[in-house]
Design brief:
This is Transporter. Keywords: Membrane, Symport, Transmembrane, Transmembrane helix, Transport. The chain has one domain: Hydantoin permease (Orthogonal Bundle). It has 19 helices and no strands. α3 crosses α4, α8 packs parallel to α12 and α16 packs across α18. The longest helix is centred in the first third of the chain and has 33 residues. It is globular and about 65 Å long.
Length: 442
């Protein structure tokens, strides 16, 4: 018998923690800023409900329906073993994603520690130069990476209930509390309404084809679908929980946090006449400039960075867990040993990405640093392919009866939407994903 979540809330908080990470709190604000604001937000909501949620339900069904981790789940539900490569593809994707995700986690951890000691906000400081000095220092980058991965290993060594679930029960409520504090302060700034209008008033003339594709890609990224992380999480789930209701709760929380992230960032950015389209530098360069001009700015910056750190590490749990579970499913290896070995492998593989802004900055592959190339490979190629494989597996390979049984279990009247979900997985979802993949490559 596999270890299981101790409660429905524990599963939802852990799954929400997996989804609400850099995608919702960092990637979403800067993509929204770069793609015109409100129109991008509406497209993101649309794609999350139409494409992301059906995929999330699918991963839940595969996991609970098989009671297996990602690799063996696909083999169990299909007549041929070749489909297990979807799970292996997911493990590889999570591993590669961790090699640059953990580097960013290390940067955030470094910024958080500096902020708590009052070492960031200084009058006249160039925050772009500060960021450059941190990521440009190989020792700082590697130490941050090691500490971030070590924290993951420490939590995951305790298992599902005593590790992931227990930590998420504390960190997820704190994340919401800190985010609400930042929003209240941001909305009380002079000129905050300009930021609200930018974020919530759609201007569809500002949306490009690239922006539309970014919105769809963000719906995958923000729900942690495509690499079978949720297959692994749901394999620990009992039969007393409605999968579509659980997916709906996670989607709602994700969209709600994305809304809160926009309300925290854009009013402050516009209040101080800064550019909303600053891209990935929004967290490390633009926001310190904002907090520098606020009373108690150091306190609010520390809260904001702690918020980002909590979101980042709860998401990374799911990425490392899919690797650990692949080797602990049959009880052949001890969890803590597998966790330590997996963490060590991630650290070694992530070192080139950690050095991409310093010692290896001139080492380019396809005109990209190792960090940027890994990001592109994972986000633009492997993630949409993973979503496409899962859609095809669910839509055309698994027995329809098993899928609908899992969908309807404990779902009441909501179970009546099972056929609609199945139709989406056979038609709209794979078609849209294929279009995104092709245009993404172009």
């Amino acid at each position: 018998m596999n270890e299981q979540w101790s409660s429905k809330l524990g599963f939802i908080l852990a799954s929400a923690g997996a989804a609400i990470g850099l995608g919702a709190l960092w990637r979403f604000p800067y993509l929204t800023g770069m793609n015109g604001g409100g129109a991008f937000f509406l497209l993101f909501i649309f794609f999350t409900l139409l494409i992301g949620m059906p995929l999330l339900i699918s991963e839940f069904i595969i996991g609970r329906g098989s009671k297996r981790e990602a690799v063996s789940a696909y083999a169990k539900l299909s007549a041929t073993g070749a489909w297990k490569w979807i799970g292996r593809f997911g493990v590889l994707g999570c591993f590669l994603l961790l090699t640059f995700y953990a580097v960013i986690g290390g940067w955030i951890l470094t910024y958080t520690m500096l902020s708590l000691t009052g070492s960031i906000l200084q009058p006249g400081r160039s925050y772009e130069a500060l960021f450059g000095s941190i990521v440009g220092n190989p020792l700082i980058s590697i130490i941050g990476l090691i500490v971030f991965v070590a924290l993951n290993v420490a939590v995951l060594s305790f298992g599902i209930k005593n590790g992931i679930e227990r930590v998420n029960k504390y960190l997820m409520p704190l994340l919401f509390i800190f985010l609400l504090i930042i929003i209240i302060r941001s909305l009380t700034l002079d000129g905050a309404m300009e930021g609200i209008r930018f974020f919530l008033s759609p201007d569809f003339y500002s949306i490009t084809t690239a922006g539309t594709l970014e919105a769809l890609g963000q719906s995958f990224f923000s729900l942690a679908v495509g690499f079978s992380c949720m297959v692994t999480y749901s394999s620990y789930l009992g039969n007393n929980q409605s999968l579509p209701r659980s997916a709906g709760s996670i989607v709602f929380l994700n969209l709600f946090v994305s809304l809160l992230a926009g309300l925290a960032v854009f009013p402050a950015v516009f209040a101080f006449n800064l550019e909303p389209d600053s891209g990935p530098n929004l967290l490390f360069v633009v926001l310190p400039s904002v907090f520098e001009q606020l009373p108690l700015g150091g306190v609010f910056l520390s809260l904001f960075l702690l918020l980002f750190f909590f979101a980042t590490i709860t998401s990374s749990f799911s990425l490392l867990e899919i690797m650990i579970s692949a080797f602990t499913q049959n009880k052949k290896y001890k969890r803590n040993h597998v966790a330590m070995i997996s963490g060590l492998l991630v650290i070694v593989a992530a070192i080139p990405a950690a050095l991409s802004n310093n010692l290896l900055r001139d080492v380019l592959l396809f005109d990209r640093t190792v960090f940027d190339l890994t990001d592109f490979l994972v986000s633009n190629i492997m993630l949409p392919l993973g979503c496409l494989f899962i859609a095809l597996f669910v839509g055309f390979k698994v027995k329809k009866g098993l899928l609908l049984e899992q969908y309807r279990m404990e779902s009441g009247r909501l179970g009546e939407t099972a056929n609609l979900w199945y139709l989406l997985m056979q038609t709209i979802v794979p078609t849209v994903i294929l279009i995104v993949f092709i245009f993404g490559l172009i």
